[in-house]
Design goal:
This protein has helices at about 5-10, 25-35, 40-45, 50-55, 60-65. It is mainly α. Bound molecules: iron/sulfur cluster (SF4).
C-alpha cells in the first residue's frame, strides 16, 4: 500500500479553494476534475494566478490560456 502524503501536499497546494475536502488528496482531485473534462487548480496557477481564482477548470479554458487567448 502506498502512503498518502496529504498533509505535505496540502501545504504545497496552489488551489485557492481552501475548504475543498480533496485538498492535498491529489489522486481524488484529479479524478474529480477529469470526470468533468477539467484540470486541477494547480495546473491553472502555473499559468495565471487570476485564472486559477476564476475556478473555471475547463480543458478549453486551459488550452486558451496556454495558446495566449
Ligand atoms: S483543484 Fe478542485 S478538487 Fe483540487 S483542491 Fe482545488 S477545488 Fe479541490
Amino acid at each position: 500500500m502506498v502512503e498518502c502524503n496529504q498533509e505535505r501536499l496540502k501545504e504545497n497546494c496552489d488551489c485557492t479553494y481552501m475548504t475543498c475536502s480533496r485538498r492535498g488528496k491529489c489522486c481524488e482531485c484529479i479524478e474529480y476534475h477529469l470526470k468533468m473534462n477539467e484540470l486541477p487548480g494547480c495546473v491553472f496557477s502555473k499559468i495565471s494566478k487570476d485564472a486559477e481564482k476564476s475556478y473555471n477548470r475547463d480543458f478549453n479554458y486551459f488550452a486558451k490560456l496556454v495558446l495566449g487567448g
